[in-house]
Structures are given as C-alpha cells and as structure tokens.
Design brief:
4% strand; mainly alpha
C-alpha cells in the first residue's frame, strides 16, 4: 500500500501528554523543543484533517491511476539527482553506480522518468542524503515543522541542500515551471 493510500484512510491522532508518556515510554529522551513541537503537531493534525487530506482524496478520486503513477515516478526520478551526489560524497561507489544507472535508464527507457524500468531490472532505489552524514556526527535536535511534520535540524538542512542541488541541476526547467504553474507545484506536493 502506498503512503498516500494510508493517508487517504487516516485521521491524525490527538496525543495527550499522559498517553504519549505511557505508550512511548521507550522514547524517553531529552527534547528541548517539546512544548513547541506539541503545538506544531496539533497544527499539523488540523492542517492534514481539513486541508491536505481532502485535497489528496480529491486528487486520488479524480486522477486515473496511470497518471498518478507517472507523476510519482517522474518526481521520484528527479529525486535521484541529490541521492547520486550524496552517494558520491559518502564515497559509496556501488550506491553511486546504481543510482546513476537508475536515473539514466528511467530517463531514457522510462520516457523521461514517467515509468520505472530500473526497478524491474533489479536496480533498487537508494536513499542517501546529507542528513545521514550529519546524523553520523550527532548534529541536530528533533523538532516538528509546520505542515512538513517531524524532522531534525540536520534533516531539514539536508532537505534544503538537496532541493538546492536539484534546482541547480535544472536541466528541464522544472523550477521555473513549479514557480509559474501552481497546479504543477500541487502535483509535486501530493506525489
């Protein structure tokens, strides 16, 4: 089941402090931003319930499966660029080679990334980001971001860096199109 399918059938849970402490006692760790995180969590739960999930349900019900799949594959394929660079920076030659191969195969055989023939050929998607490098060194407290949800300082920094790298290698003009076309931006967001 895809992540979006799970979201379509869910409602963000409300967690009271007592409930959280009882159910997640094993997570008993220092959180200097706990009060802030709890407020943002509540905001995000309402945002999901009243804005994001209705948009996602509408998109899912109006858009044919092959269009959703093509859009998801297209944006996932663009995501291979920062993975490729982060694999190379971590000096992981096998991950770098697999990611480069996936990107080239999906762009050529997969018609610009609309299909994912690389997976059918056994080239599994890798997940390498700057946050993994920073995490190795223990950088970044946990926090909850408005609309984006839980993250750490290192992962937020890594996401921004990866996004900048992706926009710098803007070989198809996607950044301009996302800025000029709200529907395309929305398509990327729901995928």
């Amino acid at each position: 089941m895809h992540q979006h399918q799970k979201l379509l059938n869910s409602k963000a849970p409300e967690l009271r402090s007592e409930q959280f402490s009882e159910e997640f006692n094993f997570l008993n760790s220092y959180d200097p931003l706990e009060s802030f995180n709890r407020h943002i969590y509540k905001f995000n739960a309402k945002f999901d319930e009243y804005i994001f999930l209705p948009i996602l349900r509408t998109y899912h019900s109006l858009t044919p499966r092959f269009v959703r799949s093509g859009a998801r594959n297209f944006f996932a394929n663009l995501g291979e660029i920062p993975v490729l660079l982060n694999s190379a920076l971590q000096i992981k030659p096998q991950s770098t080679l697999v990611t480069a191969s996936r990107f080239i195969i999906n762009v050529t055989i997969g018609v610009g990334g609309l299909w994912d023939p690389a997976s059918k050929l056994g080239l599994k998607k890798r997940n390498e980001d700057l946050g993994q490098i920073l995490g190795h060194y223990g950088i970044g407290p946990y926090r909850v971001l408005p609309i984006l949800g839980p993250s750490s300082l290192r992962d937020s920094t890594a996401d921004i860096t990866d996004r900048l790298v992706q926009s710098d290698i803007n070989f198809i003009g996607l950044e301009e199109a996302l800025n000029d076309e709200p529907l395309l931006f929305g398509l990327e967001a729901v995928n």
